[in-house]
Design a protein that fits this description.
11 helices; alpha+beta; four-stranded antiparallel beta sheet; globular
Length: about 280
Amino acid sequence: MAKQTRWIAIIVIVCLIDLGLWLWLSNVPRKALGGPVVVTVHPAAEPQSQAQSDRAMSSPAAASEPASTPLPVPAGAKSPLTMAMALDELFGSKVAQSMFQTADFVQRFVITVDKLGRAKAPSRLWPTVPMPGPFLVDWQGGSGVIGIDNGLRYTPYVLLLETVDLPRAVQIYAELYPQFQRAYEEQGFAGQSFHERLLAVMDQLLSAPDLNVAPKVHLPVPVGATGAAKPWVLYQFDDPALEAANAGQKIMIRMGAVNQRRVKAKLAELRRLLHGLGAQG
């Protein structure tokens, strides 16, 4: 299974959801009592001009239809605010320097947001530093389920998300938006709106199923036969509907019910603020 993501102030998760995106929480996700819920997960639709998987950050743009929801920011506007300054303001310089890939944050952020709505979101392209530790699995009578402690690996992102001043984060996003749009077009989405893609991916994260029990997982092939240095990245869900989910939705499932509900609450708030921003244009 792929590892998970982080976001700019939840515009930081995310892959997340974004996901939003690392200070450790004290609560441990627990499997709730009761039977599993029935869920339907719809894979994300692909945009008209899809960038190739793992393409270089400087790939050429492709022609497409103009975006329908522009932000109220002139395309050529230049902001005195830099991305590094914004991260320092939102998270503090110590956290920003230790958790984020500040040198090419905008490019990484744009790529990760887009990939969260697809089958895979490679962690090497994330705007954050890699998360320590493997994916944890508990074994019950020969069957594997997502480990009860696996959610602890996500709790730093959850707390980070909950400490962010979302209205201020949205203001910064609007001010720096030309950078995000330019980076998105450089990935092969010329004429398409990154803002619309961001809202669409957030909707997909919010629609991730909230399970009452830890889902069953398995390795598709014997570990010894793969030769993989990190075999835990190969785990798949037993439930075909869950396995068909996109990368962002799978992250939401793997983080555990408690973390997922907290993240969704902040994502919903951020989604509302971002939607209102676009509506001003």
